[in-house]
Amino acid sequence: MLEEILKQIETGQLSAEAAAKQLATFENLGFAKVDHHRKKRQGSPEVIFGEGKTSTQIIDISRAMMAKKENILVTRVNKEKAEAIQRTLPDFQYHEIANLLFMMNSGEPVYSNGYIAIVCAGTSDLAVAEEAALTAEAYGLEVRRFYDVGVAGIHRLFAHIDEIRQATVSVVIAGMEGALPSVVGGLVSHPIIAVPTSIGYGANFQGLSALLTMLNSCASGISVVNIDNGFGGAYNAVLIHRLANKQK
Question: Stretch 91-103: mean pLDDT, rounded?
Answer without folding.
Answer: 91
